[in-house]
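S.,

Sequence below, as promised.
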Amino acid sequence: MTRTVRFHEVGGPEVMRLEDVEPGEPGPGEVRIRVDAIGVNRAEALFRSGRYIEPVKRFPAGLGSEAAGVIEAVGPGVTGFEEGQAVSVVPNFSYNDYGMYAERAIAPASSLVPRPDGVDAVSGAAVWMPYLTAYGAMVEVGGMRAGDVAVVNAASSSVGLAAIHTANRLGATPIAVTRTDAKRQRLIEEGAAEVIVSDEEDVAGRILALTGGRGAEYVFDAVAGPGVTELARAVAADGTLFLWGAQSGQPTPYPGFDLGMPALNLRTYTVHEITRDPRRMCRAAAFVASGLRTGAFRAVVDRLFPLEEIVQAHRHMESNTQFGKIVVTT
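The prediction came back faster than expected:
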């Protein structure tokens, strides 16, 4: 038996329970992992509360799609991985099928990446989802180039910070947007060329001023909701507004008609566009691994929680006070 986080109804963090569950043996194409660290993602809070893009199909339900650990057992047909190997798990599966909030867990082999020497479990659980998300939108889909301007909303999140680092590595200019002034200096230290405080400033006006009226080639919005119209005002002609999150929980309008039908590209995006496509995932893994090797990329960890404090970890995430990744250790 292994300690596993499950929930029996949708709701707030308090619905999660730590239960003893038999992890089972890996089936074809699967491995069993001794989980050492788990990256906590906002998508998991949405799934737990019944507000995710995919509904909960059965109870009890599990959580978690980003982890680091060591392979304990390999199922039939798995090649390229072996028992005792240190790996990270990246999100390429449904929460209805697998969950990493546990001391031991079954995972599809397709979700694994080898953990390089020198990358500990906490870092291995914290780096992959943010950088794969940023790489996919910025490089694979967006085709970002040196000299472009990238506006990053919710910039102090793990994905926001990865986007800042990625923009810098590509030679683009990252402009960070954050709600309060409290995180301004840290965002500058992480590489933001400019920081806009949305509670105090006219966001679109500042972006247009910083770009000489041109606007930003790319805007990456993790909040969505009514604010999309204001952000769209600051997108350059033929630029793209990516919606890669919906933290506001409010309806999101299409802004094109209200703004006079500009040449605006608006699209949703999730990391699954990368992790579920083997060719894209191969390129993304090489890009992220090279960034880790050179020091351009690194885990930014806000706080560690033990597995028995998973409720507190989710409450901390929903407070929106964190800077970087929340990681749970087993």
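The longest helix spans residues 278-294.

Coffee later?
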